[in-house]
Amino acid sequence: MTQQQFQELKSLIQGNARLIQNNADGITRNYEMVGRIYEEHGGRLEGLEGGLTRVQGGLTRVEGRLTRVEGGLTRVEGRLTRVEGGLTRVEGRLTRVEVGQEQLSHDLRAVAEGVTGNSERIDRLEGRFDRFEVSFDHLSANLTASYADHEQRLRALED
Asked: 16: domain range?
């Protein structure tokens, strides 16, 4: 039940209670008038008096029931208010989670960009190492050839 539906139901019940009260007041006036007529006309209206007493008793019971219903509606209204307060707190928490998620997403993007940048740097370094390795292999080959050449000359001199 929405808050608006609850308020409409409460208003209808309160309107009915006022109507019943007004009817009870009217019945009381009628009862008094019947009393005067009874005094004027004697005992002919004894049966009517009993009937009016029973009607008044019934109206009193209806009023009691309406009072209990209004009390129940007041308790339900209190519960709805507490539920609305809980929902407001949950909405606040959800907003904080969303803000945190956006910040985390931003941070993850920055980390991904950093990883991409590092990957590019590593690729460049690998290229440099490959060129260095080729140069080193070239130097090693030259030194080996030169060493072999010096080795032959020394043997030739020793012989």
From this structure: 3-158
